[in-house]
Amino acid sequence: ETGVTQTPRHLVMGMTNKKSLKCEQHLGHNAMYWYKQSAKKPLELMFVYSLEERVENNSVPSRFSPECPNSSHLFLHLHTLQPEDSALYLCASSQEKPQGGSPLHFGNGTRLTVT
Amino acid sequence: EDQVTQSPEALRLQEGESSSLNCSYTVSGLRGLFWYRQDPGKGPEFLFTLYSAGEEKEKERLKATLTKKESFLHITAPKPEDSATYLCAVQGSGANSKLTFGKGITLSVRP
User: Fold this and answer.
1) Alpha-carbon gap: A97 to the closest alpha carbon of chain B (Å)
2) Residue B99 and residue A98: Cβ atoms within 8 Å?
């Protein structure tokens, strides 16, 4: 498989559940990102990992917890979410470190609904 | 703070009717301006990177241009399959600069 793959594609969870989103990149890139996409809003950067080290934590609530075990895999652990957290969560990767100016390659996202 | 404004918010064209999408930006030193295409239910797909004013890039019916204040995505003789949301983003040249996205332009091309 090529590119950036995300699982699951859709997720419905209650406010008291714990779930995880998974992302895998097959491009040999050095940086990985989590973005949140809500209707009528620009993409919001949540977390950035460069060479497996977290380099950005964009004032994200602690109910979102990222994990990057190696340069190809990225997880987003979710617990005690709120209905306003319902959105499309996108994973991306880039060849260079985040300030390097190389384009992002996105997965197709996980559509999350919090009930 | 870097800013990106895209206009119009939505655009409906007849097949074959050429038009342009606008991306206005303010950034302290431009490292790159990026255009992406996003289809419903999918992630954004990279189209172009522009690095300096005067630069142009083309791909099929799309042509991206760049000035010091804005970028245009020109669509020549569009087809229904060009219908998508087009995102613009800028990256500044500062050491801690982030990629700043616009809200996107939803293009609909009628057959």
Assistant:
1) 11
2) yes
Strand-pair category, B99-101 with B70-75:
unpaired
| CB–CB contact A90 B97 (8 Å) | no
Answer for the pair A58, A66: CB distance below 8 angstroms, yes or no: no
- CB neighbour list of residue A15: distance below 8 Å, 6 or more residues apart: A80, A81, A82, A83, A114, A115
Burial of A6 (0-12, 13-18, 19+ CB in 10 A): buried
Residue pLDDT, tens place only, A24-74: 999 999 999 999 999 989 999 999 998 777 877 778 999 999 999 999 999
Q: Write down the residue that tokens 């490292």 correspond to.
A: B31
CA dihedral B66, B68, B69, B75 (to 10 degrees): -10
Secondary structure (DSSP) of A18-83: EEEEEEEE-S--SEEEEEEE-TTS--EEEEEEETTEEEEE-S--TTEEEEEEETTEEEEEEES--G
Residue-wise pLDDT for B65-91, tens only, equals 999 999 999 999 999 999 999 999 999
Instruction: Tell me whether residues A99 and B102 touch, CB distance under 8 A.
Output: no
